[in-house]
């Protein structure tokens, strides 16, 4: 499933492709994609005549903002948007077509058919599913270290499932959680409420650094993800731990291991991310020592991240 960097890349590409266009009509070919309203004909009719003003993002969801409506789109596993000329042949797995007044079409394709669309009045989307209960936005100015500590430090669950929970922090998925935990030198099965102050700081910085670098690289193309020009993301070439089972750790040389945490395949280095034991904690919330072989956390990327505008799987233009 596309994570924050991939969806942010799609958002940026869509902004250049469709902002300013006016919808002439909409055609839904797979009704189950449309979750709100439940009347497909109403969905098609309500969108007609609206002009696209902006494309935003909330976690892993796109927000197509119009004059009077907001379309919330979740790409899920394989969803992607593409801009086509009206006369182009209709490709397989095309499920929703937005016809514009200039003769072009925005087409939504989804091989797995897991994607969803919800239509709202402006501002209404934040108080209803699927956006209502989403947590902190990592590239937002509100994502301070204090806010992160408050969201995570009291959770009794293992740290990896805690980071994957979109009600605490949004946009993080399997790839980037593994990467952030590795950079911070934290074992994925550590209880979140047993992380010391230094570890929480390292993890906060690692999340910012990892996501910022991934956005700059256009995301990670592990399977089918492509950007707005049909090009692959490049961050998969910079992954330090994810997908490297059996390979030497980039820090210490020990073989990377893979296990299952919270039902998700999880990559970690047993040396740089030592297992949690009570003996490794001295006093309340203070860690005895940092694991050897762990590189120093990358300098905080908060400044460059927060300067970005807030705003699938890929877009084709």
SSE topology sketch:
Elements lengths: L3 H15 L4 E6 L5 E3 L3 H8 L4 E7 L2 E6 L3 E5 L5 E6 L8 E7 L3 E6 L6 E5 L24 H8 L6 H6 L9 H11 L12 H20 L40 E5 L2 E5 L33 H5 L7 E3 L1
Parallel strand pairs: 2-9, 6-12
Antiparallel strand pairs: 1-7, 3-4, 4-5, 5-9, 6-8, 7-8, 10-11
Q: Can you tell me about this structure?
A:
This protein is of the alpha+beta class and 317 residues long. Helices cover 23% and strands 20% of the residues. The chain has seven helices and twelve strands. It has helices spanning 4-18, 40-47, 145-152, 159-164, 174-184, 197-216, 302-306, and strands at 23-28, 34-36, 52-58, 61-66, 70-74, 80-85, 94-100, 104-109, 116-120, 257-261, 264-268, 314-316. Strands 1-7-8-6-12 form a five-stranded mixed sheet. Strands 2-9-5-4-3 form a five-stranded mixed sheet, with helices on one face. A hairpin with a 2-residue loop joins strand 3 (52-58) and strand 4 (61-66). Helix 1 runs parallel beside helix 6 and helix 5 packs across helix 6. The protein is elongated and about 60 Å long. The relative contact order is 0.17.
């Amino acid at each position: 499933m596309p994570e924050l960097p991939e969806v942010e890349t799609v958002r940026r590409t869509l902004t250049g492709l469709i902002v300013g266009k006016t919808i002439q009509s909409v055609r839904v070919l797979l009704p189950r994609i449309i979750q709100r309203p439940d009347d497909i004909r109403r969905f098609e009719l309500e969108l007609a005549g609206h002009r696209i003003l902006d494309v935003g993002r909330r976690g892993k969801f796109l927000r197509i903002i119009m004059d009077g409506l907001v379309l919330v789109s979740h790409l899920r596993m394989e969803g992607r948007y593409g801009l086509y000329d009206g006369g182009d042949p209709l490709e397989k797995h095309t499920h929703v077509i937005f016809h514009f007044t200039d003769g072009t079409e925005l087409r939504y394709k989804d091989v797995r058919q897991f994607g969803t669309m919800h239509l709202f009045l402006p501002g209404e989307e934040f108080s209803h599913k699927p956006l209502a209960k989403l947590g902190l936005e990592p590239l937002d100015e509100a994502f301070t270290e204090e806010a992160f500590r408050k969201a995570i430090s009291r959770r009794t669950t293992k740290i990896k499932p805690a980071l994957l929970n979109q009600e605490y922090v949004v946009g993080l998925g399997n790839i980037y959680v593994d990467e952030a935990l590795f950079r911070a030198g934290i074992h994925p099965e550590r209880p979140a409420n047993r992380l010391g102050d230094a570890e929480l700081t390292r993890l906060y910085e690692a999340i910012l650094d990892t996501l910022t670098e991934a956005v700059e690289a256009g995301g990670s193309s592990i399977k089918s993800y492509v950007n707005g020009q049909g090009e692959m993301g490049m961050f998969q070439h910079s992954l330090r731990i994810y997908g490297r089972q059996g390979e030497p750790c980039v820090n210490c040389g020990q073989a990377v291991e893979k296990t299952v945490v919270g039902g998700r395949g999880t990559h970690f280095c047993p040396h740089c991310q030592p297992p949690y034991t009570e003996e490794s904690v001295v006093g309340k919330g203070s860690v005895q020592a940092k694991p050897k072989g762990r590189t120093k956390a990358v300098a905080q990327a908060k400044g460059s991240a927060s300067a970005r505008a807030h705003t699938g799987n890929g877009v084709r233009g």
